[in-house]
Amino acid sequence: MIAQVYKEMLNAKSVIRQFSEFATARGKEIGYENVFDYSLGNPSVPVPQAFTDVMIDMLQNKNPMALHGYSQSLGIPEVREKVAASLNRRFGMNYTSGHIFMTSGAAGAIAHALRCVTVPGDEVLTFAPYFPEYGPYVNLTGAKLKIVPPSLADFQINFEAFTEMLTDKVMAVLINTPNNPSGIVYSAETLTRLAQTLTEKSEEYGHPIYLISDEPYREITFAGVEAPYVSKFYPYTLSCYSFSKSLSLPGERIGYMAVNPACPDAELFVPMCAQISRGTGHNCPASIIQLAVAEVLDETADLTVYETNMNLLYHELTALGFTCVKPGGTFYIFPKALEEDSVAFCQKATKYDLILVPGNSFGCPGYFRMAYCIDTEKVERSLAALRRFVREEYGIQ
Amino acid sequence: MIAQVYKEMLNAKSVIRQFSEFATARGKEIGYENVFDYSLGNPSVPVPQAFTDVMIDMLQNKNPMALHGYSQSLGIPEVREKVAASLNRRFGMNYTSGHIFMTSGAAGAIAHALRCVTVPGDEVLTFAPYFPEYGPYVNLTGAKLKIVPPSLADFQINFEAFTEMLTDKVMAVLINTPNNPSGIVYSAETLTRLAQTLTEKSEEYGHPIYLISDEPYREITFAGVEAPYVSKFYPYTLSCYSFSKSLSLPGERIGYMAVNPACPDAELFVPMCAQISRGTGHNCPASIIQLAVAEVLDETADLTVYETNMNLLYHELTALGFTCVKPGGTFYIFPKALEEDSVAFCQKATKYDLILVPGNSFGCPGYFRMAYCIDTEKVERSLAALRRFVREEYGIQ
Description:
- Helices cover about 40% and strands about 10% of the residues of chain A.
- Chain A has 14 helices and 12 strands.
- The longest helix of chain A is centred in the C-terminal third of the chain and has 19 residues, at about 375-395.
- The radius of gyration of chain A is 21 Å and the shape is globular.
- The mean pLDDT of chain A is about 95.
């Protein structure tokens, strides 16, 4: 019979999607260029030309049997080697290909990491504000996601609440830095204290608590902000990466899970992932995409637009009196709304063709997210709408 | 803690893989061209040039943001439309894009189909001989795979055993035609009787029994053999397809699930699949691969080599006195071994650099599989080795 769990999920409509659909519909009325659509986190800059060149070169010159042939479910060995080498070079790690599992983007990586270290009934903690897909990602494995309340002053970690919730049932902690939706980068101090806490509690409970680090925005950081490599702080770290944002190719669905070599039994994880894949129907990423990405591992798309946009918005928002933690990276900003009900706030904003997303979706009501992965010219035009919105709705000049 | 279920799976080594690894190792000693490696089902002909041309054209001329941008987790709408149109044109169906869910190959399709119509504890039946990955595919969802014994005379369906095993607990039946490993195509008569049986039992039990039809070899059929389109026979059919074999691009991991439009609630399945994907970390196939495949839907690689190879092997095997059902498609043949212990039989064959795979892996001990997706010239050379093997080991002249 039709599985009820998935059928029932169809009734729950994502609030982000509702605002995004409004933006699309409104765009049909007034021209999409006139809708200040800050709803979705889609990269707005093209893939590096080097990627395109490598793709064309392989299609023209490589034996099609080798290019499109079966690859191991772990990923193509040379690709995994190159990923390891790039991480070692850039972050001073000592990965080998045996620590790298190629995945269909970060979602695939997180799905495997969760199944490696939890079983149904276990708890997984994450920190508000958080990416709402973590709910189904975790809960559909049979484990249970619990949300640690935010540290509103800085969107670092609320250690008091965290330590309280870190019971014996917690087998994994899921973090996301640079963070969607706050744009905040966890500091070295935060990560050091997180590692200390996890180490102490692991000892107390007699089992390791794994750190699953979701890092699709790792390469998007802003001037003056240091983004420490999470895995360096804690051996029991499974790093989940996607090239979607750094290379601007979200549709190509490629990423990986990297196991800290210092983790006990580190060499078990990747072969275990291949077993997990058999049950979930995961297949490693398309071979041609793996091979092409492996040639541009140290490149990124031109990501500077995001910092330009952030500065424009941060300047205007703070000038208008918004409470707002300055983002250290990503293409998100997460200010406090001007009324408690941030859904009402975002609904009012739509009258000004400003599409914002309420913080409720991210476990942080009273705030809202702007995804500023749009053209700078449009950000500039949106500032007048923003001023008009807060003046007419909230009397702020 | 490390999940034991996957850790323990690492101890179980696939017999197919052992024989395949032997072939690779032996190839290093005597040159791989001298190893008659019939162990693995990898396409041996190149992708159609039209696919390569479309890929290069898109990379050169399409806006990279559109080409590599986020796609819906259901698959790209125009691609799903084109897949539906192609199936309608070729098989007289009436699919719309709403019945097509794009997947990472057939494994992804089967993983979604299983989760649509079973819950943990349900039973799923398949028919020996069967593709051994069905074990983990089904059992890791929490449902339980049971194997209906073979109809050895023709490798169609053993209806007596099937009807007996088709209890109230069975929610889905998984078939594979053209079949790996037997090469047999289910006849219209078989499919009619299968549909009748399922309809009767569904009525008796008061719940539908779904048919999950795994069809990666659908396009590889031989002269004089009609391969009926399974879904035409039974409305509760979920067709699982992969382009791996028809287009010779197994590494690119692209396929789909197609829901019979006549199935009650047919329009629910595809959105449900998107929910399933959230939990499994499945992402739809790479966007560029979706877009390229959509342009060559009615093409195939040059598949004639498989029929040439089949005829050579079938002729020789029957001349040597093997019991052997003539394949109607695929690139497999599944003869009876010359002794009861087909593992011993295949081990003896390795002395002659013939790499065969014992039928035990496919739920059919006493038989063996040859995957003849290799160059015809190599098949021809292998015949002398085959003759020497059966003469020296079994005294057959």
